[in-house]
Amino acid sequence: MKKIAVFTSGGDSPGMNACLRAVVRTAVHHNIEVYGIRFGYEGMIDGDLVRMNAKSVANIIHRGGTILKTARSKRFLTLEGRTLAKATLEKNGIEGVVAIGGDGTFRGAVEFSKICAVPFVGCPGTIDNDLLGTDITIGYDTALNTVVEAVDKIRDTAESHSRVFVVEVMGRDSGLLALYGGIGVGAEGILIPESSQDLGNLVERLRQSRSDKHSKIILVAEGDETGGAMNVGQLIGEHFPDLDVRISVLGHIQRGGAPSCMERVNASRMGHAAVEALMQGRKQEMIGIKNNQVSFTPFEKAVKEHIVPDAGLLRMMEVLAH
């Protein structure tokens, strides 16, 4: 293999740059030409490629976001768009591709493989940690720490004013940020898409909570069936008119910031392993880290089966929140 390409796609996540750095420098070490594709699949369609070398990725390991930029490409959903992307890879002599992204990125790679023989290997870049085949995705650890830091600060003002704060965190289909973040901040309630816990249960638990508690924190994943923090806050206010209920939506702050140390280490391991996997002839697989060992999971399996949170953690949270 003499020439490969790398791109970042979908939602950005802290650690993507660290992974990109590892891909480029591993390729250079093995005398492989490496090209960065800007703006993900959209750039692949447009032929937006740039030659990269060791200097290209200097001083980026600590930076959030992605220097290659990212996008969600509607054109790639069409056969015409994928055909143009195939032409780009063939025109530039690309023999392998490293895709750094999440569920949508890998689904796109599966569909693309039906018309293009160029092998793809993926590195899981998503703050949701919702891909099967890895214990942790690139971006999750940093996003989780961002949630904890933000809610710790919210707790300070909640305690000072005897308020209830309903905090909404990201997680359209996965509640892992809310679950682990809620346990980490000692939340009094956690609502996630994967749990059958309802608002009635939350209201009852608030009713039974200690009267001398001066603050209460409820974490809600944005994809929970309750409809998000606004709906939850409204319901709590209706049942407890004497409580001072406030809403806080953390939003895209969770995507930004410098990646944590473990994020940088894991992303580097994945990027390094991705290049070596292409050299070994592997394709249509996601690189992961399971039990501290590099693992390989077919794209189709990684995106079809989502992580199911441990119900015991929710029960533990209820015990500890008294």
What attributes does this structure have?
Rossmann fold; elongated; 11 strands; 11 helices; 41% helix; 322 residues; seven-stranded mixed β-sheet; 2 domains
How many distinct domains?
2
The biggest sheet, with number of strands, parallel, antiparallel or mixed sense and barrel status, is: 7 strands, mixed
Q: Which range does the strand content fall in? A: 15-25%
Radius of gyration: 22 Å
Strand arrangement, major sheet: 3-2-1-4-5-10-11
Look at the helices and sheets and give the structural class: alpha/beta
**End-to-end distance, in Å?**
59 Å
| Portion in helices | 40-55%
Q: Quick one: how many beta strands?
A: 11
Could you say what the CATH topology of the largest domain is called? Answer: Rossmann fold
Secondary-structure element series: EHEHEHEHEHEHEHEHEHEEHH
Total number of helices: 11
Ranges where pLDDT stays below 50 over 5 or more residues in a row are none
At the first level of CATH, the class of the largest domain is Alpha Beta
What spatial form do the alpha-carbon principal axes imply?
A: elongated
Return the CATH architecture of the largest domain: 3-Layer(aba) Sandwich
* Average pLDDT: 92
Describe what this molecule looks like in 3D.
- There is one protein chain.
- This protein has helices at residues 16-29, 40-46, 79-91, 103-112, 140-161, 176-185, 199-208, 229-239, 261-279, 299-304, 311-320, and strands at residues 3-8, 33-37, 49-52, 96-101, 120-124, 163-169, 189-191, 216-221, 244-249, 285-290, 293-298.
- The chain is α/β, with parallel strands linked by helices and 322 residues long.
- It has 2 domains: 3-139 and 259-304, Rossmann fold, CATH 3.40.50.450; 141-255, 3-Layer(aba) Sandwich (Rossmann fold).
- The mean pLDDT is 92.
